[in-house]
Structure formats: C-alpha cells, structure tokens
Amino acid sequence: MVVLLQPVTFNSDVYVNPKCKPSPVPVPVIDLTDADAKTQIVKACEELGFFKVVNHGVRPDLLTQLEEEANKFFAMPQYLKEKAGPPDPFGYGSKRIGPSGDMGWLEYILLNANHHLSSTKTTAVFQQTHATFREAVEEYMDEMKRMACKVLEMVEEELSIEPKEKLSKLVKVEESDSCLRVNHYPEKEETPAKEEIGFGEHTDPQLISVLRSNDTEGLQICLKDGSWVAVPPDHSSFFIIVGDTLQVMTNGRFKSVKHRVLTNTKRSRLSMIYFAGPPLTEKIAPMSCLVLKQEDRLYKELTWSQYKSHCYKSKLGDYRLGVFEEQLPFYMSNV
User: What percent of the chain has pLDDT over 90?
Assistant: First the structure.
C-alpha cells in the first residue's frame, strides 16, 4: 500500500532552493503485523529513507492524551514556559534552533528519554506541568522505544545482521542516548503569501526517528533528485525516518533523508519526534557483516558522543556526514 505525496508549489527562491522542483512520489505504508513487513522496511530504507507504519500497537487514547497535555503546556504564559529554558539542549526553546543561528517559526520542548541520566531542564519542564503530563510522556517514550526496537529488529532479521540485536540493543540498553522532542508551530493570524520556515531542512543524526503529528500539514521530505514533496499528515499513524547513524552503520545502503517543516496556515501544528540514539560511548562504523573488505568502507569510526557534538555545533542544513567519510588515497582521488 502506498500514499501519493503531494507536489509542493513555491512562490519565492528565498525559502526554497531553485533546483528543487515539485514531484509526486509514493511513500510506503507498512503494516507492522504483516509477515512481509521486514522486507518492505528494508526496501523503504534503501529507496527513500522514510516510511509510514500502521497497526503499530500504540493506544489511540495515549496519543490523544499526550497531545492535549502538550497543548496545555504551550498555552501557558510565556514567563512560565521560560522557567524550563533556555535549552541546554534539553528544556524549552522558542524560535532559536541550536547554538549556530538557525531560526524557525516554532517553540519546542526537548526531553531526555533516559531515566538513568539526570537532566535539570527536563525536570524543569515537568515542574511546570501537571503530573498527568509526565505520566503520558513517560508511557509514550516507552512505546516509542518499543516501536523503534521492533523496526530495527526487523532490519536485523532481513539483512541477517550478526551479532543478533546489533542495532536494536543500542536502543534497548539503559545507556541509550534517546530523546523526545515536541514541536509546536503556532497558528498565524493571517495566512502569509509565501511558505515560511517552521523548521529548516536537515537530517536526523540518530539511528531512526519516530514521528507523529496532528492533522496539520507542513512536513516535507527531499528526494534523491533534489525535489521536495509534501507528506500528507495522519494523526493515527507514525512515520519512520532513517538517521545518519544508521546510514553509516549500513555503509550507505540506507539513506538518511532531508526533511523540513514549512508553515503557511492558520492552524497550529504539533509534532512529536522520538530520536532513537545509541549510548554516548558507542563506536559508530559500518557493520562488518555488511562490509567484508576494509577498503569498501565508506565511513570511518567515530563514537556517538563525537558525532553528536559535531552535529550540535553545526548549522541545520550542513552536510554533517562528511566528518565520517573515509578519504580516498591521493592517487585514487586524482584519477
């Protein structure tokens, strides 16, 4: 089953690379209970780096509850929200995305998903909200962790990855460096004449991201030919995004996909993204079971902590995987 992504039209090169042209593309819709799901997942990761999952097993009332609780937080007076900021990177932030000057039409909270690692800013967010918000967040994180592990286990099985749980264990272990981001794109009093940047184009650094939003449009992905397409929203389903780390570990077989959010509507948009990351000390490199010869490796080894720090200091749109790439010998680079 596939859903056709809608062509995107633009009014100004200020907001969009002029090389990007509208183009429809089918996005895979994968039933996680289907016996063939693992094959479909690998194909989607190779071809698009992005797919939609249904029959995921997450209770609809949990999704509704967390969305309601998040909206309550963002509806609070600004001075109360700012008690949970500025982000470090956890906590509350508004408009500014990271320390390198990127800006967007949004406010957000970033929460540490590892209960064993303390975060004063994550605690500060919970101190500004009712206990039901924390309860919903923690249950949601557990469900996202379960789903991320299930997807990675299917990848392991389909690719015959050894040792077993090579990927999924990185998310299962207590030291896993995962987090939950809740983005709120406020409604606009007047619909602008041009699409405006809600969250600029970027790839996600982690293994995979599990995304859900309300029924407001805005999410777009960039295809291999450089064209951008709009992803129709679906509040009852989840989207899986391949991250940089998984691209490296599969030696480029899976593709980390660029995505962004544009805002041009009077309706607010709320999205929740669970970033499934490895432990900080984990060494990230192409898996030997997929790349038998050392000279065939496209990427060198770095720890997750090193790459995470590199990404945090860069701008959103930078090509960050370059730090991983193996340099060709001089005689080969001049052929």
Answer: 74
